[in-house]
Amino acid sequence: MRKIYLLASFLTASITILTSCAQLKPHKKVIDPLETFVPQDFGAKSQDKEYVSKIESFVIILDSSASMQDEYIGAVNKGHPKFTVAKDILARMNNTLPEIDVKCAFVTFGHGQFKPFETSVVYELKQYSRGLLEDALTMSTPPQGSSPAGNGIKDAWNILLTSGGRKAVILVSDGEDLIGCPLERTKDLKEKYGDSVCLYTIFVGNTAEGEEALKDIAREASCGFSVTADGIASNENMADFVEKVFLTAVPKQDIDSDGDGVYDKDDECPDTPKGAIVDSRGCWVVKGITFDYKKWDIKEEFNSNLSNIVDILQKNPNMNIRIEGHTDNIGSMEYNIDLSQKRAQAVKNYLVGKGINESRISIMGFGYKRPIAPNDTEEGRALNRRAEIVPIK
């Protein structure tokens, strides 16, 4: 009986202790899901304007140091790690930015206590796409180690050596304990690239000192500005940020999509390749070549103009073309169809002789069906005796 009593007492005590331990064990904090974000559509933002890129390239520098693991106490996605909030802000930017012709690179810093000055160039300058940046954000290394922001800016300095035109650097950080002399590296960036580069900082932190550190970097760059994650979190404010950093609004009547110098509203031949010599209609012509009456031979003085076509075809090995021959209206249509084909064939022979595979080139003669000038003057007839180049997709 005594043994049964002792056993019962032992079980009661054990249950009490276990229950007490369970009560003392802290509950895991439940964090709300990331906020839903619906980006503004720049395509629908204006009926009479189109948004084009005002920069040729940009570099994103993301703080992946240990302090970015701490809980964010700001408004947007409060309670999540700062690193999660930073990636979400970049995702909002990525989803707001239209698919524009620009190159992008991605750099992170903060990769372990034993590598205090290490950065990671996730990818060098590549053609921007939403999917590319989305994948980089998804696969970002978890935050750890120190904050060599200066080294990240130095990486941007090196990456941008391969880029011309205007450029942007976007630094996303909590601004805490930044090392690697970020102000000095920003000064180096400006000395190298001058007004062609602007630097923007996005503060994702909890301290006034950290925010001020990022403002100092933006001020040192002289071109650019500093914002907070909370300040650009809404779809309207994010659209404003994206427009200021990346875009220029151009009246639609002034858009030149293929960059040939002829506005779209006047361009009869859209999608001409970059560098092609075009006429006032925006059509790729064998510039300077006007054939003599009843002739189709290529004169030596036209060789430099034909070299432009050879150069474009060499730079675009997957491009095929059709050479179209044209005539004035003297003579029968049957005669002029044959003459226009001979003119197109003469241009093809020249290109093949310069090493262009003949399988990439087809010809067609239109006779006098497609004049570009009146045939009632000698000047007009001379303009109509021509050859044009049409890219074949």
Secondary-structure map:
Blueprint (H helix, E strand, L loop, with lengths): L1 H23 L24 E5 L3 E7 L18 H15 L6 E7 L1 E2 L6 E9 L2 H9 L5 E2 L3 H11 L7 E7 L8 H12 L3 E7 L4 H14 L4 E3 L6 H12 E5 L51 H13 L4 E6 L7 H21 L7 E5 L12 H7 L2 E6 L1
Entry keywords:
393 residues; alpha/beta; Rossmann fold; 60s Ribosomal Protein L30, Chain: A; 3-stranded mixed beta sheet; 10 helices
Give the count of helical stretches.
10
Radius of gyration: 32 Å
Helix content: 25-40%
Tell me the number of structural domains: 2
Strand arrangement, major sheet? 5-3-2-7-8-9
- Kindly estimate the percentage of residues that lie in beta strands according to DSSP: 15-25%
- Most strands sheet: 6 strands, mixed
What is the overall shape? elongated
Total strand segments = 13
- Tell me the name of the CATH homologous superfamily of the largest domain: von Willebrand factor, type A domain
The overall pLDDT, averaged over residues, is 84
User: What's the CATH architecture name of the largest domain?
Assistant: 3-Layer(aba) Sandwich
N-to-C terminal Cα separation, in Å? 97 Å
pLDDT < 50 runs, ≥5 residues: 17-25
The CATH class of the largest domain, by name, is Alpha Beta
Q: What would you call the quaternary organization?
A: single chain
